[in-house]
Amino acid sequence: MTHADTPAVQGGPELAQERRLVTEIPGPRSRELAARKDAAVTRAVGTMLPVYTVAAGGGVVVDVDGNSLIDLGSGIAVTTVGNANPCVSAAVAEQAAAFTHTCFMITPYDGYVRVAEELARLTPGQHEKRSALFNSGAEAVENAVKIARAHTKRQAVVAFDHAYHGRTNLTMALTAKNMPYKHGFGPFAAEVYRAPMSYPFRDAGVDGPAAARRAIDVIEKQVGATNLAAVVIEPIQGEGGFVEPAPGFLPALLDWCRANDVVFIADEVQTGFARTGDMFACDHEGVVPDLIVTAKGIAGGLPLAAVTGRAEIMDAPHVGGLGGTYGGNPIACAAALAVIETIETDGLVDRARAIGKTMLDRLTALQADDPRVGDVRGRGAMVAVELVQAGTTEPDAALTARIAAAAHAQGLVVLTCGTWGNVLRFLPPLTIPDHLLAEAFDLLAQIIKES
Ligand SMILES: *Cc1c(COP(=O)(O)O)cnc(C)c1O
């Protein structure tokens, strides 16, 4: 029960930026910890790559056995500014020394207000905005739905095929995929409906506006605009497979929402904060959502999430109608302010574009001589390949699992995703040095060839 069990190692960008394997993966100390995990932690909480971390930063994760792995996951798009980023760590330490919690609803503090001001400045649109802060992406999505219902006095909510919005009861209902997110966990929240997504790889010949008309037709026929409080959509889907809708899909959907007084909620939990080579993925097509939900990359790993949007919508719930004990915790707010400052002063939006270009170039080259690489897609440092039976659109989850396992064994932290489990996704921290990115994609090319 002491901290002495885990050696104190300095993380951050000072860590040697190298891939270094000194044991098999996972090594003996990690396997010992995994055995303790099995005896103490429910099996329901899985671990994708059970090397136990002692430090991380720049573009690497270092484990208890002394292995140094190349990080292409950022803890699922969270440590965008780099793990243990010195600005973030310093802001956290300073705030922790001042006070750790008061509850913003009891005696408030400036950090929360400053995060809300920054969100108003950075999120799409010049309109008057308000924010509310929460602890997780799922909690924020739930609150966005509450706000939309209070504003419209309607109940129905539409989400899309392949959507992922979280694991709480309402967000499970919004999430599309049964296994592992929903299986056996019903009944789910009522008044949630699903519309077809624009999925260019599986949608040959359906352009963005046509895909939007297809979705709108389902909504009008199966839900009815006058019953609909909100449409919730990820501008690029995350867990669902990095599905980037065809150009024109999001703008057409937004136009329809405006015309029908339906609240357009952009779930930018995964795409937000420089990840896609814009501050927000909605910026790419100039889409201005009514409400935008942020989390993951917002606070460098501290638990923070937000709903930001039009003042008249955000102010619709009654006084005291929103909140929570920890929402907008002062340490998480201090981290978020440091993250935002780092993104801007270090030019990380541009860095995301540069990383994206490298990854897309490498993966497109692979695709040219491997017909199992069905699709290469994504923007900025959020890029994926969809693997299929050669020359078809038939998903190949087994191949994807083999590639991921081989990548893990060779010290690459690579994540999979997709409705069919056949997508490899790449979400490196924006602090990854070029030589590590190059090494990772050299290795991947070889692994894919041999798989
Ligand atoms: C991760 C994610 C969520 C849920 O966030 P949590 O913090 O895990 O609750 C919601 N929406 C999207 C798009 C996500 O990627």
Automatic annotation (TrEMBL):
Pfam families: Aminotran_3. One of its GO terms (molecular function) is (S)-3-amino-2-methylpropionate transaminase activity. One of its GO terms (biological process) is gamma-aminobutyric acid metabolic process. The keyword Chloroplast does not apply. Pathway: Amino-acid degradation; 4-aminobutanoate degradation. It comes from the Bacteria. Its EC number is 2.6.1.19, 2.6.1.22. SUPFAM superfamilies: PLP-dependent transferases. InterPro entries: 4NH2But_aminotransferase_bac, Aminotrans_3, Aminotrans_3_PPA_site, Class-III_PLP-dep_AT, PyrdxlP-dep_Trfase, PyrdxlP-dep_Trfase_major, PyrdxlP-dep_Trfase_small. Belongs to the class-III pyridoxal-phosphate-dependent aminotransferase family. This is 4-aminobutyrate aminotransferase.
